[in-house]
Amino acid sequence: MSWIEHHPDGSLVTVWAVPRASRTEIVGLHDDALRVRLAVPPEAGKANRELETILKTTSGAAAVELVSGATSRRKTLVLRGVDPADARRLLDGGGA
């Protein structure tokens, strides 16, 4: 299983979120997920909103929607309007 797959609306991305980090950043891969550090706590949806923001900004997606894992570190999100090849290049520099 790949961390990024085709979705009818764009790309489906699997993320491993690390809340309460020193800064918000995409740091590469963690097993079969994109590892993202978030400089906010996982309370009241703050980490999920921060994750959606960094993915939207970095990928240029029209919208980002959390589809599973709202209370888990492992999350699945849809990047609307972004082809999987472009999302892979933008989010992980073309890696795995």
- SSE order, as H and E? EEEEHEEH
Overall pLDDT score: 94
CATH topology: Conserved Hypothetical Protein Mth637, Chain: A
| Shape designation | globular
Strand content: 35-45%
Residue share in helix: 10-25%
Rg, Å, rounded? 12 Å
Summarize the main sheet: 6 strands, mixed
CATH class: Alpha Beta
Record field, number of beta strands = 6
CATH architecture classification: 2-Layer Sandwich
**Assembly level:** single chain
Q: In whole angstroms, how far apart are the ends?
A: 11 Å
The computed structural class is: alpha+beta
Helix count? 2
CATH superfamily: YggU-like
Number of domains: 1
- Stretches where pLDDT falls below 50 for ≥5 residues? none
Structure, described:
- With 96 residues, the protein is α+β, with helices and mostly antiparallel strands.
- It has a single domain (4-73), classed as 2-Layer Sandwich (Conserved Hypothetical Protein Mth637, Chain: A), CATH 3.30.1200.10.
- Helices cover 24% and strands 39% of the residues.
- It has two helices and six strands.
- Strands 1, 2, 3, 4, 5 and 6 form a six-stranded mixed beta sheet that branches.
- A hairpin with a 5-residue loop joins β5 (63-68) and β6.
- It is globular and about 30 Å long.
- It starts with a strand and ends with a helix.
